[in-house]
Specification:
By secondary structure, this protein is of the alpha+beta class. It has 1 helix and 9 strands, in the order αβββββββββ.
Length: 125
């Protein structure tokens, strides 16, 4: 018998469970890096969903009932603080989120001149 072939088969056989375990766990880690769900604070409610390869922002003013749906966020930031930006005409809707505090987001809205017109903390519902 060829001892090299047996040794190689043994090494590959022992490493296969590790590779499989890594492949199975990777999507779970990726899903935890996005603030999915509904967040509320005062008169504002924001729901963030992921479908069709895009993040969708559903914003509602609880007082007036006005709502807004935006799709396709740009992602900025770093692993400690992620920023998701949607554009509505010349207005920017920005959600800042920290994975180590996943139940809170900061909603900011900027007018066409770049001036911040809304800055609120929203809490997961």
């Amino acid at each position: 018998m060829n001892m090299r072939a047996i040794a190689l088969a043994t090494i590959l056989g022992l490493s296969a469970p590790t590779v499989t375990e890594f492949i199975i766990k990777t999507p779970v880690v990726a899903q935890a890096s996005v603030p999915l769900g509904t967040f509320q604070g005062g008169e504002w409610s924001v729901t963030i969903n992921y479908s069709n390869n895009a993040l969708t922002y559903y914003g509602t003013n609880q007082r007036t009932g006005d709502n807004l749906v935006l799709r396709g966020a740009k992602v900025r930031g770093n692993p400690q603080r992620r920023i998701y930006i949607w554009q509505n005409g010349d207005y920017l809707y920005q959600v800042a989120w920290r994975p180590n505090n996943p139940r809170i987001i900061r909603l900011q809205v900027f007018n066409p001149a770049g001036r911040e017109i809304l800055n609120r903390l929203l809490y997961e519902n």
